[in-house]
């Protein structure tokens, strides 16, 4: 991604200067000229997301509208995401692994992470290519869900049981992953307790104690949910991390990418992306489709009953993720967070997922 000596780290919107943009453009066209930079959108959540327009004379090779991710400017999300270095992990993904991914991804213009200095990811704005970004609260149709499940199966099928992947990319389940696991287990109970109270009637009372029991035993349960066949997983596959090129999905926000159980991605997606009634109606056919696509990708020996059982168990994670996100605050738009809690709670209740974990 260009001259590594031309650093592109930024920390605040005011850092997005003409001089900074010049360094990015010159990675593609050394003699190009940047005339101006206009920051027209700043969104602060788990990271700070900025949209800018860059006036330059190399538009045939470099887009004019850019999307930039930096560590969050909000104190609570920054504290949660800084130590496990989530954005650093996403930079590592795009720099060393994304070229082989069988999914549509955004175009990366520059990516840099320096220990103790921060991380910055610069990509072409989706609007530059007439792609439609998803919103976290989007309720997908059956056809859209079918296409996402197909693409997830292609990803999981390509990397299933490839132990060499983790040897070549130790950062996938390395320090960042270990810190995240430790922090998540440490904070799970108090945040689950707070989130359940804040969610009010969206979560049935009968789920409260099982959810707290899950949180108290989170470390053991997370190990249990990582004992079946492994593959490369996105691990945060909700509608806001999907974009659309016509009818086909693309995938954003790879901060939590890791080696894990592929069915966990499917459970997270179906619990957050579909209205409960639509999910109930098509759940089995979508899971059958997932199995079929894995088989087409060359995966053999699939036990469909076991896969469905693991699916039901993995539904506890999107439930936890959305309730804890609410408890932390500032990481997702409030009404959107409540909507995803409603969907995930319905999925957990439908499948008695906490009892599945206990069993």
Structure explained in plain terms:
It is a single chain. With 359 residues, the protein is an alpha+beta fold. It has 2 domains: 13-129, 2-Layer Sandwich (Phosphorylase Kinase, domain 1), CATH 3.30.200; 132-358, Aminoglycoside phosphotransferase (APH), C-terminal lobe (Aminoglycoside 3'-phosphotransferase, Chain: A, domain 2, Alpha-Beta Complex). The protein contains 14 helices and 10 strands. Strands 1-2-3-5-4 form a 5-stranded antiparallel β-sheet. A hairpin with a 3-residue loop joins β4 and β5 (118-124). α4 (142-159) runs parallel beside α10 (276-296), α9 packs across α11 and α9 packs across α13. The protein starts with 17 loop residues before the first helix and ends with a helix.
């Amino acid at each position: 991604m260009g001259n590594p000596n031309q650093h592109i780290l930024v920390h605040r919107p005011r850092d997005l200067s003409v001089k900074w943009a010049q360094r990015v453009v010159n990675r593609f066209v050394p003699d190009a000229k940047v005339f101006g930079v206009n920051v027209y959108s700043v969104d602060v959540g788990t990271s700070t997301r900025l949209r800018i327009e860059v006036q330059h004379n190399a538009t045939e090779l470099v887009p004019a509208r850019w999307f930039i991710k930096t560590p969050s400017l909000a104190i609570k999300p920054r504290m949660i995401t800084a130590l496990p270095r989530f954005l650093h992990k996403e930079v590592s993904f795009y720099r060393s692994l994304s070229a082989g991914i069988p999914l549509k991804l955004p175009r990366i213009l520059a990516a840099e992470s320096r220990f103790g200095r921060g991380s910055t990811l610069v990509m072409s704005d989706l609007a530059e290519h007439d792609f439609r970004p998803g919103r976290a609260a989007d309720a997908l149709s059956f056809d859209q869900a079918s296409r996402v499940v197909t693409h997830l199966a292609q990803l999981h099928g390509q990397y299933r049981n490839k132990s060499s992947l983790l040897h070549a990319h130790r950062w996938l389940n390395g320090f960042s992953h270990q810190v995240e696991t430790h922090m998540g287990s440490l904070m799970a109970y108090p945040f689950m307790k707070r989130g359940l109270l804040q969610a009010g009637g969206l979560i049935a009372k009968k789920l409260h104690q099982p959810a707290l029991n899950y949180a108290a035993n989170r470390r053991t349960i997370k190990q249990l949910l990582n004992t079946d066949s492994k593959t490369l997983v996105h691990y945060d596959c909700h509608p806001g991390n999907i974009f659309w090129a016509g009818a086909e999905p693309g995938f954003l926000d790879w901060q939590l990418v890791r080696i894990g159980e592929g069915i966990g991605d499917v459970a997270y997606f179906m619990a957050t992306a579909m209205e409960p009634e639509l999910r109930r109606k098509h759940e089995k056919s979508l899971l059958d489709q997932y199995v079929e696509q894995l088989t087409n990708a060359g995966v053999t020996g699939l036990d469909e009953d076991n896969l469905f059982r693991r699916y039901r168990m993995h539904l506890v994670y999107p439930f936890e993720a959305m309730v804890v996100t609410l408890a932390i605050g500032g990481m997702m738009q409030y009404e959107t967070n409540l909507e995803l809690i409603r969907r995930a709670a319905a999925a957990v209740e439908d499948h008695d997922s906490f009892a599945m974990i206990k069993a």
